[in-house]
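hey
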């Protein structure tokens, strides 16, 4: 069984990371209870699960929660910042980082729309020159471009934000990985139980 199928069992509409963060009390996550019921520990990585939901189930409703979670985490690292910066900088870093965390294999190519091939003038299919199999991999340039999509700034200015951008990306990837491992461990255990039952 694939991760997609496991995740499809749950209804992520009920999850709200914001309430958990903002009020510190018992999170209002019905999805948390659903996950606990099949023996997966949500608490290990709530953001990671929300990321997987948004990514695998293409669920846009949790997008706001992810941005918010990234922002909270970012504000912790930005405490080290000595100079002044505009009030929307942290929001732009958070959104750009979440965009990347949701498309770790790269952004969908704008030329071939993810197909990886283009038709030439004779209507023959040719590999798209703008991407690798439909995806444009993330690098420092595309991160800068993504940041500017939310908050236009000079390249040299962005350079000073870049360590924070990287830091939040690393955090998001770690959370996602932890959630994936939790699901995989549970799937393995289920598989082994099923094997035992058969033998
Ligand atoms: Zn392409």
């Amino acid at each position: 069984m694939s991760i997609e199928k496991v995740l499809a069992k749950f209804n992520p509409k009920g999850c709200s990371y914001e309430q958990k963060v903002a009020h510190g009390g018992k999170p209002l996550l019905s999805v948390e209870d659903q996950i606990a019921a099949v023996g997966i520990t949500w608490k290990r990585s709530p953001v990671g699960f929300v990321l997987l939901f948004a990514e695998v189930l293409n669920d846009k409703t949790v997008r706001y929660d992810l941005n918010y979670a990234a922002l909270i985490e970012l504000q912790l690292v930005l405490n080290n910042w000595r100079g002044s910066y505009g009030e929307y900088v942290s929001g732009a870093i958070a959104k750009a980082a979440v965009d990347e965390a949701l498309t770790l294999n790269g952004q969908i190519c704008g030329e071939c729309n993810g197909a990886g091939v283009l038709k030439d003038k004779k209507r023959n299919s040719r590999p798209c020159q703008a991407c690798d199999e439909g995806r444009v991999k993330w690098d420092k340039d595309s991160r800068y471009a993504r940041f500017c999509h939310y908050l236009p700034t000079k390249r040299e200015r962005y350079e000073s934000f870049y360590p924070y951008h990287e830091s939040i990306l690393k955090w998001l990837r770690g959370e996602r990985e932890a959630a994936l491992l939790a699901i995989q461990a549970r799937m393995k255990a289920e598989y082994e139980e099923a094997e035992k039952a058969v033998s």
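Residues 3-103+146-198 form one domain. The pocket of zinc ion is lined by residues 109, 111-112, 116, 128, 130-131, 134 (CB under 6 Å).
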